[in-house]
Design a protein that fits this description.
Length: about 110
């Protein structure tokens, strides 16, 4: 794996930890594949459909997990941006440092 290095690059161990969680890996792959900001509702729907529970309860649980579990870690590492007015998430420039892995994730989604 090639990490793009600069002064603000995340350590490889942090990137590995972020991508170790399957839901977070899928979330990042969807954002990378779309290449645009997505609402948490749309992300929840995509992740629920890709997972095992595309029911309304499954989508609701996925939105909760994104907000409570994934966004705090991704925001703390500056990998995503969150617009609270739109309740929407997008990849930040920091995500480019592990673009090779995001490309692989997006490919797996297709």
């Amino acid at each position: 794996m090639v990490l793009r290095h600069d002064q603000n690059a995340l350590p490889e161990t942090v990137v590995d930890e972020l991508l170790a969680e399957p839901r977070r890996r899928l979330l990042l792959g969807v954002l990378y594949d779309r290449g645009e900001r997505m609402s948490v509702a749309d992300l929840g729907r995509e992740l629920a459909v890709a997972g095992t529970d595309p029911t309304p309860d499954g989508r609701r649980e996925m939105r909760r997990a994104i907000r409570e579990d994934d966004l705090p870690k991704l925001l703390a590492t500056d990998v995503v941006r969150y617009d609270s007015t739109l309740d929407a998430v997008s990849l930040s420039g920091a995500a480019r440092q592990f673009e090779d892995r995001l490309t692989e994730l997006a490919r797996e989604l297709r």
